[in-house]
Automatic annotation (TrEMBL):
The lineage of its organism: Bacteria, Bacillati, Bacillota, Bacilli, Bacillales. One of its GO terms (cellular component) is plasma membrane. This is Carbohydrate ABC transporter permease. InterPro entries: MetI-like, MetI-like_sf. It is a multi-pass membrane protein. It comes from Paenibacillus faecis.
Amino acid sequence: MDNQTISPRQMSAAAVNRRMGRGRLEPILFNTFNAIFMTLLVIVTLYPFLNTIVVSFNAGNDTIRGGLYLWPREFTLQNYKAVFVSGTIYNAFLISVARTVLSTLLNIFLTSMLAYTLSRREYVFRKPITFIFVLTMYFNAGLIPGYFLMKDLNLINSFWVYVLPSMISAFNLIVIRTYIGTIPESLVESARIDGAGDFKIFWRIIFPLCKPVLATIALFVAVGAWNSWFDAFLFTSSRQELSTMQYELMKLLSSSMNANSNPAVAAGAGMTQDAAASMVTPLSIRAAVTVVASVPILLVYPFMQKYFVVGLNVGSVKE
């Protein structure tokens, strides 16, 4: 029988078909692996918070046994009743909201204005002033000098001790100034030709174009202001009406850690102290405190998520 010969054209066609087959298979394998990996990553990331929610809704005496995963075994609201039993928590919530909103607005406006000023090449003092701000990121006067500074400024036991010290941030200044450096200088020059001053250029041109990085900075400042409790302990602990939500939650958690139960918990829940001790434990209180402190930020974050990655990436890299 005659041997069949394969022409070079047929050989090249077969090689192309094999490459095309691999080309179609590789995306399928990659997408499958990527989907599995990302699903596992989401589960690993979300599980600790989901488990904390489960513990917060589970009876304290049952939580001690362990073995809680995705659903409470003995559902109860006593942990949240223990958190909200004190009337001071509501006033503290309003104080925390007020300081978070004011700190965020002032920090964004003043830091971005300063960043615009230090981004101007014609400003002769921009380098030494920038150096001074960067220096504060590495060296701190300390706790005691800081306290005496607040005392000399008459900010002790004042609401403004939460707001004024955080109006300018060196890190945020560097991020915003770098982002402003990516804005074409021709926009500023054309505005100057039309007779616009520095403030008008900043407010009408620079500030709107900085929306992504400002949203990122706003999230940083808001989370920091909302989670802060040490300044309330240090500067306003003698005035209950100026206590923040985080400070009140910290005191509740500390009291629950130092005793099996809190008398106020039993009174608020309508039970005897022994009955409350069987329902509320430091572990369950800690879970409820974590959920209460996290929910407001979780409600705000989705509205800023679309700006977060863009603002942080562009504001930290300049080509």
